[in-house]
Amino acid sequence: MQRLLRALLVVLAIALSSSAGTGCTGIDTSGNSKADEIDYALRDGPVLVEFGAAWCGWCGEQQPVIESLSRNITGVTFISVDVDVNASLADEYYVEGVPQMNLIVKKNDDGSYVYVDRSGRSTTDRFRSRLVGFMEYDELKPLVEAALAVR
Fold first, then answer.
1. 8 A C-beta contact, residue 86 and residue 29
2. Is 54 left (phi over 0), alpha (psi -120 to 50) or beta?
């Protein structure tokens, strides 16, 4: 029980520190157990996972869009994943180029996930759910809203 409590406190501390000064609610995913952090965040609502890298110029352009979404839409957690640090998670999400985002609606009881694809429809196909390349605020907002509606 103490281990669980300690783990929850660590996740909370990471979440609070990563959102400080940016207006972005979410969890800093620069360490280990990213899949666990995503699963934990899904308890509270949909999660937008943004895969990027420090060397990626378009990722730098995507970040202000995500921060703006996080300020204007509640009920969604925004998580950034550095593909150079978290290569195995990037592989699980079929990341072939960055930026890439996946909008995860929920985790089912059988361990599968529900996503929102680029058309705004829900899917259980992780590959099909990839949002590859830079996306403007007006492109992402309806998808995030669709994830909230499916939830």
1. yes
2. alpha
Angle, vertex CA 20, rays to CA 66 and CA 98, nearest 5: 30
DSSP secondary structure string for all residues of 57-104: HHHHHHHHHHHHHHHH--S-EEEEEETTT-HHHHHHTT--SSSEEEEE
Helix, strand or coil, per DSSP, at residue 44: coil
Closest CA to 79 of 25, 33, 122: 25
Domains of the chain: which residue ranges? Answer: 2-150
pLDDT tens-digit readout, 56-104: 999 999 999 999 999 999 999 999 999 999 999 999 999 999 999 999 9
- Write down the pTM of the prediction: 0.78
Strand partners, 49: 79, 102
Question: How far is it, in rounded angstroms, from Cα 29 to Cα 118?
Answer: 24
In this structure, are residues 132 and 64 in contact, taking their beta carbons and an 8 Å threshold? Answer: no
Q: Which CATH number applies to 2-150?
A: 3.40.30.10
